[in-house]
């Protein structure tokens, strides 16, 4: 046993005295350095996959940002279908310029759309101070060009929920072909003083949209001495505008001299494209040296345009008539005709020193200037009472009401100075 122990101890001493050659250490180190392990290959593959995913996300987001950078954001509720489609096509010009007023209100011109009919401005009004009457923050605007100014036509906006922001879409006259830079002048009433801000911007003429239909009409329709002329129709990607006039300046002068002056109230017409009615947008009337001029605005025409018609229906006017009708307190159902319109006097009553005259007309006839002459004295109309409507078998609607005059006497004369009524035209004009 001792011999075995001694032998083992001798072998241990021999092993402890073994020296590892330096060459072997270097060979082993180099071998390990060049060795590729499966775990490292797995980590490297993961890194490549992650890099590919990141590249895809960056590319996708870049395309998305590029798409949305061409669109006006936040105006979906203020755009009709036509404007939404144009916005989706990137037809708006992004501006993104702001002006801050002394009361802390921020005005931002987000963008514009331009065609031959109008310039549409899209803007945001923001009040982060909370110190202003937000509802009253309604700035007025105009555009200053090289030689002239372009004024607001119409617009609409909305308050964004409970927030401190409003967004607006405002229509202006289209800028002239030579305009390259415009200045949006913004005016805001602050503590009783008008403060002005200005936002300059360049027009991108590549974004300007051309007309889709432009045609001269030049047709005149005469009805009971009223001349109504349709001058032209002008369709663009954002709207369709019909222009015309009612009485030229000479005819207006003759009407005034003869005591039969007219004032147009409402023009009714329809625009039909491909057999379908085009949505109405609005219109305007104005009087200048050329007479009474009007515009009627409709939505844009369809792209696959096959036919266009204008249906001229009626014109409501207020006209000086200056008629006197002798009345008797015992009269019943007296029929009076003025300018082709029937006025039925149903009854005349005296109650407590006042006179009440009940009469009926079709619903669009209104006596806008009426007096009662009692024993030679002109009495103003105090009020109109008991307004009732009754539809007849032929489709007409009769309007029955009672005029109250705060006086009574023996002799009565009804003075009708002015009245409103509709002139029917029912004309169809084929444009295309």
TrEMBL record:
Highest taxon of source: Bacteria
Keyword match Transmembrane helix: yes
UniProt cross-references to Pfam families, sorted A to Z: DUF4179 (PF13786)
InterPro entries: DUF4179 (IPR025436)
Keyword Transmembrane in record: yes
TM spans (from-to): 48-68
Gene3D superfamilies per record: bacillus anthracis domain
Keywords of this entry: Membrane, Transmembrane, Transmembrane helix
Protein name from the UniProt record: Uncharacterized protein DUF4179
UniProt lineage: Bacteria, Bacillati, Bacillota, Clostridia, Peptostreptococcales
Domain DUF4179: 39-126
